[in-house]
Structure formats: structure tokens, C-alpha cells
Amino acid sequence: MTPVKFDIHKEEFWLSPGKMIWYPANKTLIIADLHFGKTGHFRKSGIPVPQDIFKQDLHQLFAGIQFYKPERLLIVGDMFHSKANKELDLFFKWRNDLSHLHIHLIKGNHDILNDQYYTDTAIQVDPHLTAGRFSFIHDIAEITVDENDEQFYFSGHLHPGISLNGGSRQSLHFPCFYFTKKYAVLPAFSAFSGHCMIRPRKGENVFAIVNNSIVQIQ
Asked: Contact 40/25 with Cβ under 8 angstroms?
């Protein structure tokens, strides 16, 4: 799972096939749309979604933390999916094992847990964050991006995907990192997420995640 370097404002960012971005200058791992508890939410509604999906997401996140050894985990929205359920009890145990890690959540539309839960799990929550020339927000549509603004934004929410067309009218869909000149949209970290197919414009960059590899499409 070899990461790919992508420079923004002369700073290095590393795109990981594990659906995360490593920002070494700040020792920060950036991810979006974990939707922890989503499979449990569906099961409570009578839809038999395997819990293994949630456990695999936790394992992938732990593997990324072990590999990059970040001081901070920055989540640009939708860390959780809905109200508390048994899957969040598993997350609580996982959090205790990584009590040294600072977790900073940019609140998303699905992050509706009681404030006390975030306190109990030592998660810092903010509606947005600005650090130097970089800003973090869940949904890029919530702001007006000024072309003259020097800020670069990191966001989630869209669950971006790219469609690759082959012969015989066949096509395959893959999650992707999507970069415009002013902002990035991260792929949904959760394996239990659909894709919003993007249509990149000239000058934009798309990196698809294909078979645990990063492939630049544009």
C-alpha cells in the first residue's frame, strides 16, 4: 500500500490507498466519513449487514495509525453515523488503547451523538478549522470558495468516486481523492458507503484507489 506524494502550497501530503492523507509537517493523519455505527444502525432497522465491515474499518484505521504514527487524527466530518449502538461500545474500547492520540473532529451532518460521548472519548469537536493556509470543513458546499483566497480546503461528505470505462460498454467504479485548485474532497473511509461519481474539469487531479494502490486518473 504505497502512498503517493501530492504537494499543496509547497507542503507535502501523502495519499494512502487506505483512504487517508498523511500530513508529515504537522504529524497529522486526515480522513473523512468513517460513519462508525452505520452497519449497526442498519441492523437495528432489520437489514442484516455484517458487523465485520465495521471491524475491518477499525482495523484499517489502526493499521494507518501504526504505520504513520501521527500525533493527531483529523476527521473532516461524519466520524459517526447516527445514535449510539453496540458498535460504538467497540470504538470506545479501541479509543482506550490509543488514549495518547489526539482526535479532532470537524463535525458533519451525521455526527449527532450527545456532547458527553465526545467528552468521554476525548474527541475535540469543531464546526471547522483553519491552520495557516489550510482549512478543514465537512461539506465544501457550505462555503463560497473565493478564487483570490489563498486558503486551501480539505473536505469530505461527497464520497467521491470515479468511473473508468472499458470495452464492450463496461465500466468500473472506484473511490478517489479529488483535487481542484482550491479544495480537496477525500474518499469515504467507511467500506459501507456509496460513491458520488465526479466529472473532473481540466486542470483538476483525481487519484483512484484500485486494488490497494493509488492510480492517478487525471
From this structure: no
